[in-house]
Fold each of these.
Amino acid sequence: MRSAFAGSHPALNFLFFASVVAFGMLFFHPAMLGISFAAALSYSIRLRGRAMCKTLLCVLLPTLLFVVFLGAAFNHYGVTTLFTLSNGNRVTLEAIVHGFATGGMVLTVFLWFVCYNAVVTTDKFLHVFGRVFPTGALLVSMTLRFIPLLTRRMRKIFEAQRGIGYGGGRLRGGLHALSILITWSLENAVDVADSMKSRGYGSRGRTSYTRFFWTRRDVLLTLAVLALDALVIAGMAAGQTRAMYNPYISLPAMTAFSIVLYACYALLCFMPLALDCTEEIRWNRSR
Amino acid sequence: MPRKPLLTVVSLTLCLAAVLVGAFLLRDRSYYLISGVILLLACLPFAALFRRRHGKVRELVIVSVMAALAVASRAAFYMLPTVKPLCAIAIITGLYLGEEVGCMVGVLSMFLSNFLFGQGAWTPYQIFGMGFAAFTAALILRSLRWQGKRIPCAVVGGVCCFLLYGLCADSCAVFAMAPDLTWKSVSAVILSGLPFNASHGAVTGIVIFFLCRPIGEKLERLCTKYQLFYAAETTVPQAEGEPV
């Protein structure tokens, strides 16, 4: 689905994802985890629709439960025993909660990456990193493009082998296909390079076309993200995001500051979704 | 091609420093930052390579193809975690195109394949380990002029993968799992990773044994045909009518 956030400046997109992924991996506090998880989940469903729900139910939820199960079955720290297994090991509340926190963290970061991959396309990646580090950015984007291409070529080779009735067997046929693939791709690489050169790659004074411009909204939102980042980091420095699960669950006391912190974090995480919703409402009204 | 291992050694040392800074000062939390820094540092020798002979786009694209091959080879065997031909392909590339190029392919493919397999605290360590292993294996084999010999290549490659990559990848687990860095806890973590690393090294050796000649022939042929990499300065000038 087209997202208003995806239409804003790539630098803003990068800044946003860098902050939420970094914060997502830093915070073990249940409130912070919950906010980030909810935001990542809803935004990924908005971006990917039904396919995302399917992945979530079939892959991600089982993974989460597996992590929780592992944590509860193999960690026996904690003071609150829920029940004792037949071999004398205790299953504790702390281990289960910690398992949920770890699993939720992994899941949240994964979901943010799903959103990232939908929003930050290769041209945006190149736009942001191309000027700072042109060769590296080019290599990364070119390699990313070659991976599906090689897979497709491999399939073509297999089909051709089958078509001419080649009976090399699985292993030998596979090795031959690999050999063909390497020759083909390396020769093709030279053609690609020549094509790039003839279109002016690396020549002096060449400018590159860009579709991205800073609008006033982008500037304002970037400033907002930076301010929210600063507030969240201040909260982290004040110890408001610390959480301990071993030996007993201990969270920092709820204060006015921590509520402001949660609100800021929620504002940050839900920013793209809010932007999308406002745009949609405005669009529907204007019709 | 005059080789410049010094620059690569310096940049690998800087990479190690970045990993250690990340582990101790940032308490291992900002691994994306560190992996970005490592990627940048590992590119240093390569960038120097390209600055010297500007306009060699062909070499750039070939490196990218080799890295894509390495990523695809890792993705093809995703069911078997120790079967990662990635390391072998990086070493073979280093063997025939120069150690800096092998290092670059290892770093790039590890970074990109982790987009498919999940980025995390292990990314910088794996990137560093892969670049380090590919560079060292290729440096040893090239300086001994053992490129065409399959068994020495397989042995040196496997051992480099086992020792260097294994150690670097495990140090992630050391920093994550052992809060008190004592010899006992560190050796426990490293010993627990030993079987995995041994099988990874063995697979790397086997893949090098089987693929080093087929891939090497193709790379050599390409270098000779288009005057790339090492062939650029050693062989006769380009023939008439050859597209530049």
Note: The interface with chain B takes residues 18, 21-22, 25-26, 110, 113, 133, 135-136, 138-140, 142-144, 146-147, 149-151, 154, 175, 178-179, 181-183, 185-190, 192-194, 196-197, 201-202 of chain A (CB under 8 Å).
Amino acid sequence: MRLDWILVLLILSNLRLMASARMGAKIRTVAAQGVLLGLVPLLAGAHTPGLRSLVVALAGMFVKGAVFPWLLHRALRESREGREVQPYIGYMGSLLAALTGLVGALLLSLRLAPFPAGATALLVMAAFFSIYAGLFLIISRKRAINQVLGFLVLENGVFLFAAGVMGRTSLLVEVGILLDVLVAVFVMGLTLFHINREFDHMETDRLTDLRD
Amino acid sequence: MLLPWILPLIGWILAPLLPGVINRVKAGFAGRQGPPLLQIYYDLGKLLRKGAVYSRTTTWIFPAGPILTLAALLTASLLVPLGGQEAWLGFPGDLVLFCGLLALARLATLLAAMDTGSSFEGMGASREAWFGALAEPTLYFSLAAVGRYSGSQSLSQGLGLLSARGWYDVDPELALAFAALLVIFLVENCRIPVDDPNTHLELTMIHEVMVLDHGGPDLAFILYGSALRLWILGSLLVSLLLPSFGSNPWLNLGLGVGGQFLTAALVGVIESVMARLRLAVVPQLLVGALTLAVTAALLGMI
Amino acid sequence: MNWVLAALGIWLAGGLAAWMAGRRPGLSASLCLGSLCLGALCFAGPVAGALWSAPLEWRQSWAFPGGDLVLHLDALAAWFLLPALFLSLAGAWYGKGYWSGHGHAYPGGKAWFFYNLLTGAIAVVLLAGNALLFLAAWEVMAVASFFLVLCHHQEENVRRAGWVYLLATHLGAAPLLALFLLAGTRTGSLEFAAWAAAPEAWAGIGGLALCLALVGFGSKAGLFPFHVWLPEAHPAAPSHVSALLSGIMLKTGLYGLLRFTSLLPAPPDWWPWTLIALGSVSGMYGILYAMAQRDLKRFLAYSSMENIGILFLGFGLSELGRLHGNPAWSALAWMGCLWHVWNHALGKGVLFLSAGSVLHTTGTVDMERLGGLSRRMPWTSRTFLVGAAALCGIPPLNGFWSELALLGAALLAIVQSPGSPMLAGMLVLGSLAWMGGLAVAAFARSAGVVFLGEPRSESLADGGSESPLLRGPLILLASACLLLSLIGPAILNPLAKVMESRRPSFTTLEFPFRAELQQRLFFAWTGLVILVFFILALALLRRRLLSRRTVESSVTWDCGYARPAAGMQYTAGSFSQPATSVLVPVVDLRREGDPPRGIFPVPARLQAHIADPLLQRFYRPVLIAIARLPERLHWLQHGNLHLYVLYVAATLIFLLFWLMD
């Protein structure tokens, strides 16, 4: 029951990410998503969580809910532009795409049933929808921060899928994923910073000017 | 035996109190004393005793507008449950009739507004028509989500079952449907953040500008109709949210009526703490609410 | 059945006589109207028999291969035939007045001949039990309506519309020919009854046959994406012809599809989904474009497209229910679809005839120039409002009944069924709700701009009132709408007959559900009665309250501006601007003009034009490319008779040798 609420909140946060044009709000939404996601392994599965999973979850929540947002907010301040100006797909189109994705995720998850113990159709649906939302952000938005956010959301979807479907993953894998993402975000943050310093803007569609 | 008849009667009698409550709450936030709670009753009494002035441009459609609107709303008030009490007229698929009656009220108001030939009223009609068109699918989807949840096709059965289940065992789709319905409640009643009933500039009005030319009994019908609309749509919200305690129907009915006034107070709070949205942003709010309602219905599939 | 033959004969004879008497418009029209009346009377007995007791059949051997000449009048055909007869009669009555006035080019007696021919062809299409007869009647219907569209052929755009229509209707007939040939070769017969009796013959080609039927019948119905001819042809025709084309002829496409699918064994899985998807797109596209039109008749044509979408949504949902073996919502959707055939026929008939009266009185249907007509044309404005309310599907008008059934079916699918039917129900519910909301906006716009307010152009401010000759048929159709809304639940019995006639294995109205349905309709009817009671009571109350008070007249609130003018009213274009501007990515909207500049603005100008993107971006380039192809073969064409004979001879000799092998 509590898990259902968290999953629905995850779905809603994805909807907000796809619809919103304000970068600050988007970063906060991704942070909230990270915190919510950290709760999932604690609630999913038949077993009561042990100390180990508690520590991993707290670490994940800290990194995704505090470290990443801090980095991204810094990058945003550097770019001095708070809004997505002209996305490839507008507000209405994005919400329409979101609903389509939601229906698709639902059909996909219903087709995958039955699930192992602990996973529900809702969880699988939320996972697929997160992956979809991440891809959508990467594809349809111009500003580079969106690509980072999209990548994070996509990774959240993968994590959710793993947490729900595979049950208890080994510590090594979880920490590995977390480190992977951490490095990726650092690299992206550096890249953003440099793009910004060189070109005075952060719109990825204009990076095509760089091709030889 | 008596209860089904009492339910609409209570609504008809108490509905004008709701705008009074809203105004008092707003006045409280602004540090004023505000008009008396019964102000709408006084207004209605005064207007019903007045004559009327009609524009030379208007035809029979102009006075017919308020009559049709109020008649549609009076009929709609027979269709909604409150406080676990079934509606006077409830049948499978009654929400189609309910939405149809709201559409009739809208069409009548639009035509009466366009009958004056005023550019302001045409502008208000255009906005109302577009926002109403965007709101209609949301209303259907949120009620369908509730129907799916409770396995019932009628408003009374669906909403009544829900409040009987209590608060703790509620699934998230109901919360989504409630949020969508709350937006519809604000839109249909022309409340902030969509429309400001207290604005004094014709260019920014939606509903108020459409009824600028009405006076006398016609305006009384309109005033009473908008109070009744608050009551009707509020009944949906309250039925969705408020649990019923025990088996005493009178107690539950009392709770439902109390819930109505709480809803009115909530509207007063919203109006006091929120700014009105730009007109161009209102469709975004409506489409957002539609997304919530569709998500709620989709979650019902799992 | 002899009565039916007699009716067809009377129509043909009446039409020919009307043509002969073409020099005298009054006599010609009376001949046509009289023959239509007589024919309709002859039809009354058989149609009532088919609806309340058993189907009728008439069989005669003829010279063509593949079966007898069969006319088959069952409940389904009767259901479509009834509004066809009624609307053609009302249209002829209207045409009598429409073409008698001065100034309105009377196209001659041949128009009446084609009118009768069209009515007869529609009847034969509905009755045909043999594919060959069906196709022949189908072609006669197309040709007769083509000539009727070309009534005012002096105008350039009418000629253009006529050609688009002819092209579309022939392209649409080609798949039907292929379909009937395919079925004929597989089953060895061209009789529909023989096709139904041989389900094994369809093995392997069922999907192909359905595709051909969908393209062929869908293009006649004006279904997306085959709709582009519809908004061209319907406004170009005289209004009573438009009423018949929009109200009835579009439905023959749906009828063909219903008839044909009832011959096939169970359809494949994708079939209902295709119907629902196409219906949904047609409906939403139609109402959106209707919202953006400034020509009143074009607006009505797009609204017809929307209603065809509604019909296909109902049909698709019922087919889905049939596949899933759920009788309840399938039956409800099927009922809504059938019911809407009548409601749309009557409502659209009233609206087109009212639009014709506007054209007749003012000489224009351009909404931006009209306004304030309700004082000059009180009856037309009332009938238009009745039709508009009926097509919005709001209580207490008849359109509400079909809306109640269709939305009820979608709700039932959502509430009761697991998995994919629920998604279908949501799609249908969302589309219908969207269409309903926009229909209210679109009809408020057209009725408000044309009939309410002040006249928008000087020339309209004074002029005659509506012609009393046109009043009768308008009132007749509007009262039919009102009557249908009043007796809603009573229609269930004949409707059940129609629903059961479609397919023997599809008897959907079994006992418990039928009782529940009756109860549902009765409760809804109670609601409508209460609504009417409240309306009357409030009207009386208002009258009593005002009887003792002073009632004055003044100007409309002008915000203190000293010189309000009619030109300051909200226009049709500005009314729909919020909708069209948000949907610019979907809608092909072109704006041009000079906005006002400076402190003392000089005259400014704004022109908005909306075009059907499917026509502009798809059909036109494709058709132009196809037209270029034959140009490559132009060298064969040189006007030399000897060489043409050579071609013919060479072809004959080639065929001779080829067949000898």
Note: Residues 2-210 of chain A form one domain.
